[in-house]
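look at this record:
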Amino acid sequence: MSKILAVDDKKDNLIALSALLNALIPGCNVIIAKSGAEGLKKAKTESPDTILLDIKMPGMDGYEVCNRLKDDETTKHIPVIMISAIKTESEDLVKGLETGADAYLAKPVDEYVLIAQVKTALRIKKAEDHLRRQKDLLESTVQKRTAELLRTNEQLKHEINNRINTEKQYRMLIETMNDGLFLMDENFLITFANKKLFEILGYAKDKIIGMSMHHFLDVSNQRIFDEQMELHKKDSHAVYELTFIRKDGQKIPVIVSPSAIIDADGQFKGSLGVITDISKIKQLEAQLAQAQKMEAIGTLAGGIAHDFNNILTTIIGNAELALMDVIKDKSLRKEIEEIKKAGKRAASLTHQLLAFSRKQMIKPEILDINELLTDIEKMLGRLIGEDIELLTIPEPELWQVEIDPGQMEQVIMNLAVNARDAMPKGGKLTIETANADLNKNYFREHGIKEEKPGHYVMLTVSDTGSGMDKETREHIFEPFFTTKEVGKGTGLGLSTVYGIVKQNNGFVWVYSEPGQGSTFKVYLPKVKGDAEPEEKEQSPVDDLSGSETVLIVEDNDSLRNFAQKILHIYGYRTLNAENGEDALRVCKEHDGQIDLMITDVVMPKMGGREAAERLQPLYPQMKVIYMSGYTDDAIVHHGVLEPGLNFLEKPFTPEGLGKKVRKALGSEK
């Protein structure tokens, strides 16, 4: 059972957080602390598996608590997720991470982001604990085995001196060891090896005897071995790590624990040693490092997408403004329209970056998967390469599903990439859609545990690749499981597909045989009733003009000037500020009413949410529109916008801004 310590000075936050964790992480034990000092104390006494730590608390704040936790040997390994009352600029995020925090979130937190972070922290903690236990066990085993071997060696010498024949018992002892055992003379030639060492090195017994230890090592490991042996001659006991090369060329990381054999004159005559295969431990270390690398790449991708959305808002918006002015010159108009189209294509790429970093807004829509496939077919072709034939077979009257289009696109892309990797020499990729009425028998025949008979939309992705055996099929949806060589796969693609489909009440079925390719069938529930797909663009509003006073708070100069220009065109009066603190100054100098505040969420010095909260008492009737290029901020809740909050996603168009402003202020002027 996982133990989670929640530290927050607000009782309501602790109650809500405990309820959420208990609901979405079955079997977890939530421990609460109402202050930093209490949290520090319980971290030491309760030994939680992860800590959710509020930053702003009276007395000892979250930064100090995290610093103390990471400086204490007993608590430094516990993952810490810092939760801020408002997400500020990157230096504040850096400050939190510099204290040693493993993650940084903003309130109110998206429950899926929070749970994903908590589960990731729990998995990493579990892996780290496992690695520490393995390391301790390994060190203990090495020490124990070395001690046993020393005792055995002394017993052997004693028995030889007493001319007692225990050859049979001795061989039975060493042949049943789980580690490799060797005897080596003063010239490093192997004079004896047990069965386990033959298995580790991949050689037959008669081949190993008489061979030099150098034979199983490359140049760099030979140098390490020689340096250790020089020390070994002076100190009879040593433990060090090497990489052996098997007969088949495979590299095996091992721990070598030799014990020197010294004659009566004090001369070095060789070594008796233990060799332990640590391949599995190295695998766990590699998986942990890969998870940390993917987390860093995701954070970078989200930040890049955010910055690009600011730039694209200016590019697309000014292109639309230019089109309003260009009437007669058709050639110039065509060139401006090309700029606008290019900007929108770039905006689509930033959406993919946000999807990769899992910072995209999850907005379920009534969706026709056939239309989505048509939109991304060219992109799929570039993704899989020219040596793979792409064939799409859409169901003519396909039912609709309710899912976030970005998530659905991510499912298709991940399955396509998986299929491409299974066809390194080329082949055929087929994507098919169909309507499916499934009964209980179908679920039983296909071994699907969840029996949910009904109407489903089926997406089938088939390849003519290498295929999979039964053992591989049983593990493909596990995080970090991959059959690709080191550096070629993360093991996260199919687990992401599985997570998205399950989140949307669907399921995945796989059929594959070695050499016969693979087929993945994704089933998503049909939308009930006669729901229509959501229109991507609303019908134009007759009149977007107004005369109200609007405060624009945005740290990007180009974007701020662009928004001001649009609002002036529509007749609004504007005030400008480059961050939250500047907004407070502007309002202090302004004599009159402010009807609407349009603010970026994340800005230096003071973010938009805090600025709005501080200005609201001064202007009770003031409406607020939040805008952002990425959405893992204080305005996202349960994957969609918090009720009552107006949100404008970057990049936006002049008309989009005008509609949002007019809607927020109301139709009356």
